[in-house]
Every structure is written in C-alpha cells, then in structure tokens.
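User: We ran a pulldown and think these components assemble together. Before we commit to crystallization trials, I'd like a predicted model of the whole complex to look at. Sequences follow.
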Amino acid sequence: MKRIKCEIMYDGSRFSGYQSQPKDRTVQRELEKALWKIHKKVPVKTHASGRTDAGVHAMGQVVHFDTPITMLAERWARALNGELPSDISVKRTEEVSEKFHARYSVSGKEYRYRIYRTRYRDPFRTVYAYHYPYPLDVSRMKEAAAYLMGEHDFTSFCSTKSDKENKVRTVTDISFFEQGDDLEIRFKGTGFLYNMVRIMVGTLMKVGNGRLEPEDVARILAQRDRNRAPQTAPAEGLYLWEVFYE
Amino acid sequence: MKRIKCEIMYDGSRFSGYQSQPKDRTVQRELEKALWKIHKKVPVKTHASGRTDAGVHAMGQVVHFDTPITMLAERWARALNGELPSDISVKRTEEVSEKFHARYSVSGKEYRYRIYRTRYRDPFRTVYAYHYPYPLDVSRMKEAAAYLMGEHDFTSFCSTKSDKENKVRTVTDISFFEQGDDLEIRFKGTGFLYNMVRIMVGTLMKVGNGRLEPEDVARILAQRDRNRAPQTAPAEGLYLWEVFYE
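Assistant: Here's a predicted model for the assembly, 492 residues in total across the polymer chains.
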C-alpha cells in the first residue's frame, strides 16, 4: 500500500460541508466516489486535516488515502481531476510515508476571512465573501486582534457543539489586508476549535462597528463562556487557506 | 408615468439566460417579479439593451421600465435590491425621458471574454471564465483580431439562429489583457450579432493555438458563411460589460 497526500481546493457554496453525511452532497463523498471509480469499485477511505462547514471554501485542504495502485504520485492529481465535479480540484499529490496522517500530523493552519463593503450586494461575491455595507474601523479591529494572539483558553470562541475537552489553542498571527472595498483577515495558529475563526471575526466586527471596545475581547476570553462572545460570522467568507505539517 | 433606467449586474451561472421563457429561471423574470411586488401585484414590463444567453454574465446590462410610482429615481436601486435574489444586483437607477429606450437607443456595447490557463480547472473560476490549459500565442491572436476590426458583414460570425437581416456591424476595438494565468479579450462595437463575440473568441483561439493563420480570419469574413468559422466559445467566459448611449 502507498499513502498519497492530496492538496485540494473547493468552492464550498454547493456542498453541505466537508464530511460525509447520509444523503448530503459533501466534499468527502465526491472524493471517495472518484477514488471508488479509479479503484474499480473498491471503497477507499479518505482522511482530511479537519472538517469545513457548509458554505466554507478551501484553497489548501489536505487529505490522504492509502492505495494498492502503482502510479506515479503526481499522476494522481490528473486521475482524480478527471473524475471530480467542477467545484473540487486537486492541486498536488505526492507519496508520503505511512507515519504521515492528514489530521494527526498537522502543526498549524491558516484561515482567511473575506468581507466586502460595497453599498449593494455583488452577485459575483455573494457566496465568496461576507457583505457588510456599514462602517468598520479597521484600526480598532487590529487593537482587538492583539488580545486574541498567543496561547489562550478559547472556550468563549468555540461552538458549544464542540466535543473537544481541551480548549487551549495558540493563535500565532492575525493580520488585516484592505484593498478597495475588500477586507481580508488572515489567521494563523497551531489549531482552531469548531467555529473559532468565525466567532473571532464576529467579535472583531463588533469592535470595528463600535459596539464593543477592543479591551472587551480580553474580558470575553477570560469569561470562558460562549454566550459572552458575539455571533458567528457567516460561512461564505471563510477559506481554509493552508495546512502546515512539520 | 416615469421612465426609470437601471444598470444591473448578474452572475449568469444559475440563469437560463436573460429573456423570460415559460418555466425557466431568467433575469427578466426575476426583475419583473421584484417590480410586481413593489407595484402591489401590478405587472410591469421591462426592456433590456439585449438578451444574454444561459451562463453569460453581466457587469453593466441596462434595462428600463415605466412606473406610476413617485419615488426619488436613485431610491429604485435600493427598493429593487431588497426584492431581488442574490445573483442579480441593481448598481444604479436614474429617471430618463420617454425618448430613451434601453434597446433602441444603444450606440455601442463592450463585451469582455475571460480565459484562464491553469493546468487544472479552478473551482472558483469554473463558471466565471473558460478553462483552456493549452498554449496560446497571444501575439498571433492580436494579428488576427486586426482583421475583425472595422465595418464588416459578420455573417460568418453570427449564429444561424439569428433573425437579423442586416449582418453589417462595426467593431471599434479588440484588446488583450494578460495577467498571470488570465487572458481577457475586450470587444467594443456599435452592435453585436447573436453569438458574435463567442464565435470571434473561438476563432481567435484557433489562431492562438496554431490551427488557423491570422490571415484566415479575412477569408472567413469574406465567405459570409457561419460554417466557415470555428466553434462558438463557451458561455461562462462572456460578460456584457457596458452599454453605451448617445
């Protein structure tokens, strides 16, 4: 058996998320359907770096699978792209040792969140960024973001649906990129809890629009209570940008 | 009655084209449904600068309608955007004289056609540009484009489904913009026949990939026969960019 690591991208707008669920169209189901065809109707299990929710996009999701097929590792990208629907694409494939695991070997991740601020909704961005046509003070958002960086217990920034015991994570960087109407917030960290990026974005936006003070973020973190943090920002602005391995 | 001119944009990927047809989801139907709601269930007829096919996008389609409602003309954009689905947006509205007609007053149009040349299909561009992963010699395409500029009988570049008698049109400019993997071809002219831009693009691409010579374009034009010109390029790359009025 050979272990193949795949770097994939997908437009999340027509998927019910990454992970397979009965009946729903998911990224995992489409990937495993493509592998099933290539393996002459033998099921092949895939493992991803983590799930993404319905509507969330990926530029660099990482998945691995084991195969008995002998094929140059880089050929797998072409073989899979030949079977996949047009909203998923395999960017790169490579052979890895059996010690590599797409989920357990992760050392860090980068997520990006896109907001656009035109007066009216843009049909070409509607499922690719969050439309927010109100003023945002980005310098206040940067001040607030400083409180989120470093190692913290992120219970206040984690969906109550999470089953993770340990909610301590390290956010290594939060940076802001503005270009015209677009605002992109980039988050790097050793790991992220369920909905953590979207709750951080919802909180930063409340600081940006003046309904919270930057210092309130420290208080919300310290309270370790999801009910203290503002609403989760919508899925359409979120991109799993890159997964890092040692 | 007041005549309102609207500049609209739409993502054509989920529409069966601009013009209303029984049962299909079209841009015109969605616009007239929004107007019907605003006019308390009285039907309002819209007139566009021209149709666009299924899958074709618009950044600056122009539409007019007549209304008995008294409202500041620029307010119409907000009222309509409140009722329209997320893949259509009204950019601007203004009151015009009854001599203005979105179709008959047109003095020119600009269309843009987008091609991208990555090795594998990009899920985020799949319905917004034409994926062409083969070499294209853009300098040859520019040479060929020179033969299309000016006043010509464009019978060879018009769908046989067209019911227009007079096939003489003037193309005032064709220009090429390359950035990374992207190639955009911009066409300006006094008017365009049915499928004309997409047949011109199909022809320019055959020159670009070496299967036609630039001079062949002059021959194809002179033959005035649709069967002489190459295939129509796919809808997803085409944008009605701007409509000009005197």
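Strands of chain B lie at 2-10, 47-48, 57-67, 88-96, 106-116, 130-131, 150-153, 168-179, 182-189, 238-245. That may be worth checking against your pulldown data before setting up trials.

User: Thanks, that helps.
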